[in-house]
Every structure is written in C-alpha cells, then in structure tokens.
Amino acid sequence: MSHRLARALAGILVIAGCSAQTSSSDQHVKQLIEHWRWKQYWEGTTELGAMYSPGRQFQSLLFWRTDQTPPSVGFCSADLGVCQFYPNAPGNENSFETKVPSGDDSQSAFRRFLADSFGEKSFIGRPPEQKATDYTTGMVKITLPALDPPEAIRDRKPQPRTETDALVASLSCLTDQPRCKAHLMIPFYSHSDPNVPVFRECSGCPSPKPMIIFMKLVEGNWWHGAMDFNDSRDVVDRTRKQIENALMLEVNR
Residue 67: what pLDDT? Predict the structure, then answer.
C-alpha cells in the first residue's frame, strides 16, 4: 500500500470516528432536552431552574456511560457553572449536581465530579467508584430550545395494548372489592420517562380520594412504591389538567 493511500485511509477513519462521536453527542443532547421538557410539563420546572432560557447557548463537556448500562448522561459546563448527572436508572428520578469552582474548565470540573462520585461522597454510605474510562465524553455547544411538551405527548403515539392493559389492571379495583368503581386517566408516555403520572379516583374502595399515582415500567412490569402517589389537591388538580391535555386512555371500571 502506498504512503499516499495509507494517509487517505487514515483520514477517512478519523472522519468516520468524528462523525460517530458527533452522532452520539447529538443523541445524548436530545436525551437531556427531552428530559427537561418532561420535567417542565409535569413539574413546572427543570433542574436548570432560572438558568434555562430558550435560545441560550453554552459550551459543555457531555459524558455518558460507554456501555450504555444504564443509559445515563451528564454534563459539565464552566459557562453555566454547574455539573449535572442524570442516571436514568429504573426507579431513580434524581439528578446529581455540583458547582464548578471559579477558574475551573469543564474538563477539570468533570474529573472533580467523578472523584466526588457525583457529589455523593458527603452522604452516608459508600457510593460506587466512578472511573473516567467508564464514560465517553465530547465537547458540545448546547442551544436550549423552547420548553414544548415532551416528544411522547407531541407525537401522541399510543404504547402497545398489552402494556397499557397491564397498567390499567395494576390500578383497577381488586376482586375482593365488588362495590369498587375506578376512574383512570393515562397520558401519552415514553419508556424513557422518569415515571407515568396516572389520575385515579374510585368509589366503594378503601382510598376513594382522587390522587396521582406515579407508575414506573421496570423490565416490562408496572410498579409504584409506597411513596409514589400524591393526593394533595393542588398537585392533583394541576396534574389532572396536564393529563387531560395529553390523554392517551381513559377507563371506568
């Protein structure tokens, strides 16, 4: 092989590698943005708080797990003065954050964030050790878009019938409650959503008060924990309106 051909092939490989990296970065930026849209739609704010301004641009070191298990993503931005990590693990709705010290660049902030186990070393217990080799990184410029509803609600594409039937069954009246009648409202949702807020009220059941139950789909099964519900009137009224605007399925049984 001639030196000229070898150099040409090497150039093609570099371009292909950069293209793959750019594609992965774009995918993970979209993941972050869709998460922020979900938070804004259902909770009225994002983890960026007042820093989120549509059209705002900032440089950021994006990072994600190389093996994609779980499909987590995070970023460090000296421009914003913050590092944030979104685990996106089943049952984990929390993000982790630390401030970027003045004078630190995004790369230094990332190394510090990992060394501090995403800010968890100060808490009781021993968090798993984080290694830079477990993550792929890329420098990106992020432009914050308008906080439209999340993609699942924009597209209004229903999930498989067997899956929604299982969700309804998990929230319907029990067989030993013959007088119970349940009313459920389920919004359009995505499998990457932190949870699926479902409106539920019933008559002739032990807990007839209207409530929002935050359901999670984990390995094909629906579940909710003892604390994954809210019957506060303000929360129920606001979330019910959002569900009605994004209604996928309404059931009375």
Answer: 83
